[in-house]
Structure formats: C-alpha cells, structure tokens
Amino acid sequence: MDAALQCTLCSNRYNTADRIPRFLPCGHTFCNSCLISILAHPSPECPDDSVAIPYSSPDLLPKNVLLLKLVSKTKQILCTEHKKKLEYVCMTEKIKICSYCALLGAHKDHDVKPLEEIMNEVHMRARCLLDMLEMMDRTEIEIDGTVMDYLEKVNKKFVQKKSETEEKIKKKFKKIRKLIDTLEKSTLETVAKNIEFIESAITAAKETPKRICAQSREWKDVARDVLDLVDARCEDPNSVVFEILGKDTNDLLSFGEKLLTELDGARAITNQKFDDMIESLKVEFAEKGVNNLCKVYPLSTFNFKQEEPQTESLIGHSPDSSLV
C-alpha cells in the first residue's frame, strides 16, 4: 500500500503540501518536490521515458487526484474495534479490516486480501484507465487534425474529379452527336443519290418500251403503205415498182432493223438486275462500335468497415468506491 502512495524518485509518501503528486504529459506521476528539481534543468524531461516536459513550474502540471484521495483516506488506518492498522480488505463485504478482524474477528471466514495488493491493483487499473484516456485524447486530436485534413483534401479532390469527369463526358458526347449529325447528313445525301439513280433507271426503263412501240407503230404504217403499193403494181404485168428500190425504202429497212434491235432490248428489260439494284439500297450500322465509344472503368475500392455503435452506454456507470 505504502509503495503505491510513494514517489518513485524520492520514495517519500505523497501528501497535500510539498509532495503533491502531479502528472507529466507522458502520464508518469512524481511529487512536487522532485518536479521542482526536474524542471530546473534547461531541457527538462521525464526520468522514466525521456519525454520532454514543456513546462517551467510544477504548478502548471495537473494533480493526480486519485492518489491525493488515496493519501487522504489512508490517514484513517486504525480499526475502531481492535485499534490496529487496517492492512487487509474483506472482499466479501468490501471493507478494510485489521489482522485481528481477519484471523479472529467477524471476517475470519471471509475472502480476505492484503490492502497493499488491492491498492496496487487499484493503482494499476487507474493507470490503465489514465493511459487509455490519454491515448484516446491523442487519437481524437490526430483525427480532428491529420485525418480530417486528409479527408477534406480527399473530398475536395473528389469534387474536382467529379466535375472534370462529368464535363468531359458532356463535351465528348456533344462532339460525338455533332459527328453523328454530320454522318447522318452525309449518309442521307449518298443514299439520296442512289435512290435518284434507281428512280431514273426505272423511269427510263418504263419510257423506253413506250417510245420504241410508238416508233414501231409508225414504221409499220409506212411499211404497210409500201407493201400496198407493191401489191397494186404487181397486178399490172407491165409495171415495175421502182419506188421500193429507192433510197427511201433502204432507209425504211435500216430503221426497221434498228427498231427490231430496240424491241428485242425492251423485251429483255425483265432480265435486268433491278431487284438486285433495289436490294443493294441499304445501310449497315456498327452497333458494337457505338457501344464501344466510351468505357467506364471499374472503381479501385478498399474495404472500409465502420464499427457498429455500442448499444450500451457507459454514462451513469461508476466504480464502487467503498475500498478507497
């Protein structure tokens, strides 16, 4: 018990006067008198872990309130019944007792432990809580500073990247739409020329038989007139149809041969590849190419797991102070 209430440097017992226990920034505790000597150095540091002490006076350091309470309570160390020091603890009833109480008194069959052992355990647990508290404070400060600054930079970078990506997509697709509009116009113009060619071919094919047949009818009328003249002259044995031997008949025969050739060609119109020409009037679209205009890359992710909040609150929980 006494060891827990003594300064580890001078081995003197803490008190509320000149040996007040005070915390260093690193978490170690020393008495006020020892701290005066430590802080007198040009570069004061903790004797245990050499952590720098940024203070010039012990009064600026926080008091170890827990040790002060223990010091004040350990003044009342006599058993009221046996007038002996309270050097043991009854764990069954959670009170301090003397050796007579433990061996012969009302607590002889109870779970009894030395007070020093219990106080060392109390001090150790208090130190663990203090270390944990300081670690939490440092971690929170780091989170509020470094971590939050980093996350702010990350968020700013993300917002900028988001804006740049969206703007890039809009510009690219605007350009693509313009190219598509130009391609559509060019394609329609090319197809229109093909359509016009087919229409002209069909129209010409429809007009050619009409023209040839009309010329054929005219030719046949002239040819019949000549033949009628020949028939009339042949009835006279002394007559010779010299007219049929002339240039006009030669021209008529030549034109007739031409008409026969054209009529034969008109008859072969059905053999021409109009169906193939019409079927060739088509446009193919590379849909796969359109789908591959852009590519969205998969995200590079990491596992970010946030612990579920505890449902049980520690607020309102307080340790049993009956031993101290």
From TrEMBL:
<comment type="similarity">
    <text>Belongs to the TRIM/RBCC family.</text>
</comment>
<dbReference type="GO" id="GO:0008270">
    <property type="term" value="F:zinc ion binding"/>
</dbReference>
<dbReference type="InterPro" id="IPR050143">
    <property type="entry name" value="TRIM/RBCC"/>
</dbReference>
<keyword id="KW-0863">Zinc-finger</keyword>
<dbReference type="InterPro" id="IPR013083">
    <property type="entry name" value="Znf_RING/FYVE/PHD"/>
</dbReference>
<dbReference type="InterPro" id="IPR018957">
    <property type="entry name" value="Znf_C3HC4_RING-type"/>
</dbReference>
<dbReference type="Pfam" id="PF00643">
    <property type="entry name" value="zf-B_box"/>
</dbReference>
<protein>
    <recommendedName>
        <fullName>RING-type domain-containing protein</fullName>
    </recommendedName>
</protein>
<keyword id="KW-0862">Zinc</keyword>
<feature type="domain" description="B box-type">
    <location>
        <begin position="74"/>
        <end position="115"/>
    </location>
</feature>
<dbReference type="InterPro" id="IPR000315">
    <property type="entry name" value="Znf_B-box"/>
</dbReference>
<dbReference type="InterPro" id="IPR017907">
    <property type="entry name" value="Znf_RING_CS"/>
</dbReference>
<dbReference type="Pfam" id="PF00097">
    <property type="entry name" value="zf-C3HC4"/>
</dbReference>
<feature type="domain" description="RING-type">
    <location>
        <begin position="7"/>
        <end position="50"/>
    </location>
</feature>
<dbReference type="InterPro" id="IPR001841">
    <property type="entry name" value="Znf_RING"/>
</dbReference>
<keyword id="KW-0479">Metal-binding</keyword>
